[in-house]
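Exam prep: given the inputs below (a chain plus zinc ion), describe the expected output before reading on.
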Amino acid sequence: MNFEMPTLSTLHTLLDPIDCRQEQQRHLSSVLPALSAALGVPIPTPVHPHPQQLAQSLHIPSCERAVVVFIDGLGFWNLVLRIGHTPNMRAMLRQQYNDQPIWTTQPSTTSVAIPTFGTGTAPGFTGMFGYTQRNPRTGNKAQMITFTDDIAPREVQHQPTIFSQIDQQGMRVTSIGLPRFEHSALTEAALKGGAFIGSESPRMRLKHALAANETPGLTYLYIRDLDKTAHKSGWDNDAWVAQLEKIDTIIGTLRRMLAPGTLLVITADHGVVNMVEQDQIDIADNPMLQEGVELVAGEPRAPMLYTTLGQQDAVAQRWQEVLADRAVVLTQEEALNQGIFGAVQPHTLPWLADVFVLTQGQHTIVDSRTQREQERTLPAVHGSRTQMEMEIPLLMEVL
Ligand SMILES: [Zn+2]
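Solution:
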């Protein structure tokens, strides 16, 4: 394998920040545009205008059928550090081109990553910038997985989905997940198009994936359980590993039973880091972190601040001073200049926060004045720009 296996003495470097612009090719946003080209129905997007070239540079071979397994919360390094438990993914990781990670979005979180993946664009196009963000129409904080505060998905996310565009080209697209996701706001915003098959049973979902793949086209299988387990009990423990083993068994069945010639693709939306209580900063205890801040959105690894008019530079400065090397603090202008959201479109700009905070190491930032204890004590978290959170697998195999 073409990477150094982390050792006890290098492990901490996985918690160092990496610098990555949204427009990279080895990026989650490239996966579906490149796959569309591999399937013979190239869908260009504003971020990836040449899907055929993209497929070539990602080494995606032409195919008649592809199955994408999307594993919520499986970071490249979370996988590598527990690779002994995953014979199937280990065999895939050993294959050429699979041993290098790709990058997810910043913030490294589901409600940002899935729309970017589903539209092949960038948060600047989808308007989905965080786990929570301020709704410019009401001024309230809205959660962007279920779209609280009465936000219609179309109100913020205007980009056509890749699934709907492949479907319009007459090629089969099948999404498989929990029944309640069929009409969920996030599906509507990011993954709409083609047929949806819902089932509560993982076995049935697997069966549906095998059956769907009998017809040429694209099958998408979403697996949520690993992220759920991490948020419940942390990632580095028996419960998480047991869940990972279950998922590897599913991958094993797909490898054995999918029609020959199928391209199997495994990717994810973000990795996870464990929360450490003594590395948590509470805004409620720090008056300097409160001054000039009207609303704190985002999540503990990536707070996004909406400030009093004209206060963004002063707030950013104060936060950087208080947090020192525990976080990187960026004003909106700095974040835009770094290109971390891609090209921000006029209609998404009002959703953007004034200050972005990206924590380092295992630090988290919470606010006990407004957040419930459960939100503040999640055993595993994500959202920031460390290797652990940002680097995700892209494992591909022609069966
Ligand atoms: Zn999560």
